[in-house]
Amino acid sequence: MKKIIGNSRRPHKRPLSPAAELLSTVIPQCSSTNADESSPASDPQTEYADFLLRQHRATSNDSFENSIAEPECTPGPAIDLTTVHLDDTARMQRAILAQQLENARAEHTLKLIAIENARIDQKLKQIELEKKRLELEALHFGCRGRVAPPLV
């Protein structure tokens, strides 16, 4: 274990990986807490395995390999979930706007139909008035010998 986490053997090499840094900080903490509890597991590897198991159970339901592969400090999936949530929200807003546009078009079409119906009704009334006027003229001029009063 010392070979992995010992800084004294690596002064000229590259810096420690995040996992090795975690090992170097965790194992001394585990050994000090376990020494106080007087547990039979005094081996550093066993202590570290117990620590990882407790950490895994406390943080996630994922597999053990996934909990080691992802460092704790990065929010990783939270950013992805936020992005997915924003994408879903934008998609839902576009769908709502498309539905509102479709509704507005349907309302516009209904108003155009109502205007056309009103024009047709107006023409029908004009035709009925013209028909009544012609009937009155026919009655008026149908009186023989009488002079018809002027129509206004």
From TrEMBL:
<feature type="region of interest" description="Disordered">
    <location>
        <begin position="1"/>
        <end position="46"/>
    </location>
</feature>
<keyword id="KW-0175">Coiled coil</keyword>
<feature type="compositionally biased region" description="Polar residues">
    <location>
        <begin position="26"/>
        <end position="45"/>
    </location>
</feature>
<feature type="compositionally biased region" description="Basic residues">
    <location>
        <begin position="1"/>
        <end position="15"/>
    </location>
</feature>
<protein>
    <submittedName>
        <fullName>Uncharacterized protein</fullName>
    </submittedName>
</protein>
<feature type="coiled-coil region">
    <location>
        <begin position="98"/>
        <end position="137"/>
    </location>
</feature>
